[in-house]
Amino acid sequence: MRKYLCFMLALVVVGLAMGSGAIWAVGKRAVAPLRNAEGQVLGMAIFTQEPQGVRISVTVKGLSPGEHGIHIHAVGKCEPPDFLSAGPHFNPTNKKHGLNNLEGPHAGDLPNLVVGEDGSAVYEHVTDRVTLTPGELSLFDEDGSTLVIHAGPDDQITDPAGNSGARVLCGVITPMKAASLKIPAMVTTALLIAAAAVVVWLLLFR
Length: 206
Ligand SMILES: [Cu+2]
Ligand SMILES: [Zn+2]
Hints:
By secondary structure, the protein is α+β, with helices and mostly antiparallel strands. The protein has helices spanning 2-25, 177-205, and strands at residues 29-35, 41-50, 53-60, 66-68, 70-73, 113-115, 121-127, 146-150, 167-172, 174-175.
């Protein structure tokens, strides 16, 4: 009887281990290589799910100095040269455009990217209007999402895109599976081995 109780306990441990692996596999980080119309990668965006929201970290080069509109767009597709395939701004809550719009903003609206005289920029912003985890605000909905950088500044009020001009860089937001699995996979494996050892010990030596 005790043997079976212990066996069931071991099964629960295995189940938990596999369950935790599955939860982590959803991914808490994502990445978007930013390409121009010629297909050159001129930047990289990293998305990290944090308790207070998603941290978006962007590094880019080769842009014109000054302010550039930067948004999360609704469709995970970057077809050059115009990137219109990325669709409108990510807007699951059905708002209007602009951080300064009383009827806004879109979930995908972000403060402008400021590019230096050398054409490069480092950008960091945390938004609680999107998530990497499943749900209504998830960037990983059926058709995915993109990060788009525009030729001009976003005026943060004109619907639907803030008059920010052409789409110059586009990146499909992709979950970082390998990175998000690495440590949890080790933990899962350790738990599995421990559980298996318990089972073998119980069955053979008790
Ligand atoms: Cu945009
Ligand atoms: Zn918008």
